[in-house]
């Protein structure tokens, strides 16, 4: 049986065996290792949020410290990457004109503030960590930040008053803007 049939059968068998060995050779085949670098960023945050945008004083009394504005509740919150303290600074952009009534002014030295049970102090200090202005700033608190725990918050009552001892003011409405800003040092 050396016929063409036998040659065809032999060729067919050879192809089957070659295909089977090729199929077996692909088992366990792996690709190259591809990598993707992951980067995620959490930005540091520092915010001051007052519960009211206005503090009012119903009636000014000359030559007195009994000039209390309505209290303002402030929440200061932080999520930091480093730093040793969070400080809250209150400041007036133009200390000589903290409150104005036309051309009549009450300077920041006559405006006093405090947080908690601390004593009232005037807004006469310089900037702290680049926050505030010379002669018109007051540090309201300094909160230590524990190493390894750089996030937190606190809520404080800000009390403000006018110390008009030895001062007479002109009748009218006095308005001004107290800036509140926190800084990490």
Q: How does this structure look, described?
A:
The protein has one helix spanning 4-26; strands at 45-50, 67-68, 72-79, 85-91, 99-101, 104-106, 111-115, 121-122, 137-144, 151-162, 179-184. The chain is mainly beta. The protein has one domain: Fimbrial-type adhesion domain (Immunoglobulin-like, Sandwich), CATH 2.60.40. Strands 1, 2, 3, 7, 8 and 10 form a six-stranded antiparallel sheet that branches. A three-stranded antiparallel sheet has the order 9-4-11, with no helix packed on it.
Topology, pairings included?
Layout: H1 4-26, E1 45-50, E2 67-68, E3 72-79, E4 85-91, E5 99-101, E6 104-106, E7 111-115, E8 121-122, E9 137-144, E10 151-162, E11 179-184
The span between the termini is 99 Å
CATH class identity: Mainly Beta
What Rg do the Cα atoms give? 37 Å
Run of helices and strands = HEEEEEEEEEEE
* Architecture (CATH level 2) name: Sandwich
In which range does the helix fraction lie? 10-25%
CATH fold-type name: Immunoglobulin-like
- Shape by Cα distribution: rod-shaped
**Category from helices, strands and their pairing:** mainly beta
